[in-house]
Amino acid sequence: MNLSRLAAQAAERGTPVRAGLIGAGKFGSMFLSQVPSINGLEVSAIADLNPDRARAACRDVGWDDTQSAATAFLDDGAELARRDDVDVVIEATGNPRAGIAHARAAIQAGKHVIMVNVEADVLAGAILAREAEAAGVVYSMAYGDQPALVSEMVDWARAAGFSVTAAGKGTKYLPAYHNVTPDDVWSHYGLTPQAAADAGMNPQMFNSFLDGTKSAIEMVAIANACALDVPSQGLLFPPCGVDDLAQVLRPRSAGGQLEKSGMVETISSLERDGRPVFRDLRWGVYVVLEAPNDYAAACFRQYGLPTDESGRYAAMYKPFHLIGLELSISVLSAALRQEPTGSTQEMRGTVASIAKKPLKAGDTLDGEGGYTVWGKALPIAKASTALPIGLAHGVKMTRDVAKGEVITMNDVDLGDDPTVAIYQQALATCKG
What is the mean pLDDT of residues 396-416? Predict the structure, then answer.
């Protein structure tokens, strides 16, 4: 990689990469903390619904008054996207409808887009990527988040001549977590509600990580970017440590747990009885490779890769991801190389809304991490009529749906939401 050199050269020319950040939450704040130490990168504007919160975030991460004074603070993301002093727009709101609108505004203004907002990407990434290409700009996943890191590993594997058997990440999972609500989420994190509140932690957001929704979103994003398949019955979340990746995440025909090769999957850091998995990958990402020939399989063993019992499947993994601390890789890559760090190609899967409780006509859904639904990764061929989790916020049920059932688009009143139309366009990119 030579991004730091390219960025330094841009600084020497007096043309540093100018980023505009929409959403000054945790991910955005982590990025902001790194910017002062990166030669050739500036943040010229920050948009947040509460600009004072954005200013406070800059102070909290160590910005001095001079740096803050040189940055514009706005309350309108679309306005930021149109600014002449912004080269790359970072969408980090977490709101899928807002994310799509901001990305389109940026693309129309000729700006590169870094989509931290994975919720928006799994709804419309296939269309946004095409619109960006037509406009001559880059639409990219956010490096530091798992989908971009996995996309990099998959690309490495294929460029090296290996076939990808499985790819994904680790998380803390038990089947009962699908029913957890914001009311009881903190006990699973070892926190009291007061301690979480004092730390400014949002219970619904953290619950989306626990109840399986965020894993589903991220696995679908990887599938859509890397031409991998989503399990037909949803993610299995098999308990698995790093030493057993190649053994567990191989096809059933070869003795593993996957229905076939070329799948996304999330592994659990907990055994089903709650015991911790030995050498878990809770914070990391992985790819499982298949050797193309006996010679390569022998090299796996000779160079210490963890393999399955046959020696033909091997695993590579990264034990941690640094989220916003690594985001500058995407920003610099888009501006200086005109290359994304992962980008949706087609809709291979979707994240279907599953009822957490019996729902009645007239009930209002509260979306990702809430009390009413959780998100399940499913292949498009099986779930093209399912209500995607990104559209399951603030809409009313028109029919009764039993607990555990998939909610369909026909079960809710979506009104004239323009996001529905772009999602339908994205569905048309499905090749399978």
Answer: 97
